[in-house]
Write a structure and sequence with these properties.
353 residues, mainly alpha, 0% strand, elongated
Length: 353
């Protein structure tokens, strides 16, 4: 009995502990459910804390994003208001006009063509100038004049023709570059935009004086005649306030003015590039002129050498002819002297000797 009572006592104590821990609405549970519930709670509370923290972060981020978007939209509105100014808008449209003009037919064809011609002209100048220096620096003693017997000046003439062609091409390139860099149309004078010529404006003060002189020319007799009164009134010019008004020229359309503005913008962008080519072209022209002078000097030297050679050959032929004549004279003198000795009295002939 004692053992059973002692065994039942711990059971009763355990039941009392479980009743205290478990809520009133739950049924009886085993001893193993207590640590499981504590583990579930330990896992649940961190997740709940994390989710609540993330929700708060998301909410804060959303609010800051809305605030940034609102501030950015306000800043964009302010920038658009500033760009709406015509001056700023014109500056922003300049690159667009530049690319539009580059895509047009005239500038798109002329500018690359001129630049390609400029580069090829530079290569040709370098090659021809080196050949001209070689010809000009050639030593005349090393030249075989027999090879130039038919046309000794041909290499020099050919080189001068090449240099002249390069000079003409340089002038044409300079004109083309100036045509590309110059503005499309000259600005009109503000005082002459109403169709009134400058000569008319200068002579405007003299026209009323001429009208007054014509009115004073009529005599009293002619004024008294009623038949002549209408004729004199017809001869007077119509009043024009002293200025001869001419019909105004037709104004260009908006599209034409826009194209001219685009062309001007494009040329203003390209002008510095082609302006830098002009000093190079002028230096090339100076080098070509120097090469021409060197070749012409070498040509004159060759001509003088040929002239001296021709004079030397003529003098050599004359000396040979004089030597032959002198030999003949000496032979004839010896013959005459021998003949005289034979015919002299008391003289001995060569045969007897």
């Amino acid at each position: 009995m004692s053992t059973t009572s002692s065994a039942e006592a711990p059971g009763e104590n355990n039941d009392s502990v479980q009743l205290n821990n478990v809520p009133s609405n739950s049924g009886p549970s085993s001893e193993e459910q207590a640590p499981y519930s504590i583990q579930v709670d330990a896992q649940l509370y961190p997740w709940m804390y994390m989710t609540s923290t993330l929700e708060a972060c998301f909410k804060n981020d959303e609010e800051t994003t809305h605030e940034e978007s609102d501030s950015h939209s306000k800043a964009v509105n302010v920038e658009e208001a500033a760009v709406s100014d015509p001056h700023v808008q014109a500056e922003a449209e300049q690159p667009i006009k530049f690319y539009d003009e580059l895509s047009s037919d005239k500038l798109a064809k002329e500018a690359p063509k001129v630049m390609h011609s400029f580069q090829t002209h530079g290569d040709a100048c370098a090659q021809v100038e080196s050949e001209a220096l070689q010809i000009a620096s050639k030593d005349m003693s090393d030249v075989d004049l027999d090879d130039y017997e038919n046309n000794p000046m041909k290499p020099y003439d050919d080189m001068l023709e090449k240099l002249e062609a390069l000079q003409i091409q340089a002038s044409e390139l300079e004109i083309a570059i100036l045509r590309l860099t110059e503005p499309m149309s000259a600005p009109t004078l503000p005082g002459l935009s109403s169709g009134i010529s400058r000569s008319d404006a200068d002579n405007s003060n003299s026209i009323p004086e001429q009208i007054e002189l014509e009115e004073t020319k009529s005599t009293p007799e002619s004024n008294s005649d009623p038949s002549s009164a209408p004729e004199s009134s017809l001869e007077l010019p119509p009043p024009s306030n002293g200025i001869s008004i001419r019909t105004e020229p037709k104004e260009p359309s908006a599209e034409t003015r826009e194209k001219e503005a685009e062309a001007a913008v494009a040329r203003s962008q390209i002008a510095p590039i082609f302006d830098a080519c002009l000093p190079i072209l002028r230096a090339r022209k100076a080098n070509i002129e120097m090469a021409q002078q060197l070749v012409e000097g070498a040509k004159e030297m060759l001509a003088m050498t040929l002239h001296l050679e021709s004079l030397g050959s003529e003098n050599g032929d004359g000396d040979d002819y004089n030597d032959v004549e002198n030999d003949d004279d000496e032979d004839s003198d010896t013959r005459d002297s021998r003949r005289d000795t034979r015919l002299a009295p008391g003289g001995n002939s060569s045969d007897d000797e």
